[in-house]
Amino acid sequence: MLRKNDGGSGNSSQNSVAEPVARSEPTSLLLRELVAHLRQNRTQLREEWVGRITEAQLLTAMTKEEIFAEATSVYDSYVEALQTGTFEALQTYARNLSERIIPRGVETHEVVGIVLLLRDVLARSLFAKYQADFESANSPRRFCRCVSAC
Prior knowledge:
Layout: E1 2-5, E2 17-20, H1 25-40, H2 42-55, H3 64-84, H4 88-101, H5 108-130, H6 134-137, H7 139-149
Helix pairs in contact: 1-3, 2-3, 2-5, 3-4, 5-7
């Protein structure tokens, strides 16, 4: 992961430099397992996410094909950021996405809504996978913290 260093200026928006944040071995193993799960279930999770976006009537200014293409790109960027621990590319993508879709009539609450739906879809998938381990290993809570933190 990356941490912003404000260079001691007290203003994190100026002169910020990305520094790697050390991960403990259990966290690294957990993230590798999370990334593997997200890659293995990519098609199903993206389709579920797009379905939830459509049901919630979000991104109505976009066609279904455009929504699926953007969802695919967001999903893949998110998984890549989890795998590498670098979020700069994801931040750049998010800015570019906003610049493309906001002028088309997509509202801020819709963008926030789709991100929350993605978090929900991923969390439900992880709960389903690790439901049997919930009491003993507490895996879903740990995974959901990882998903939410990113």
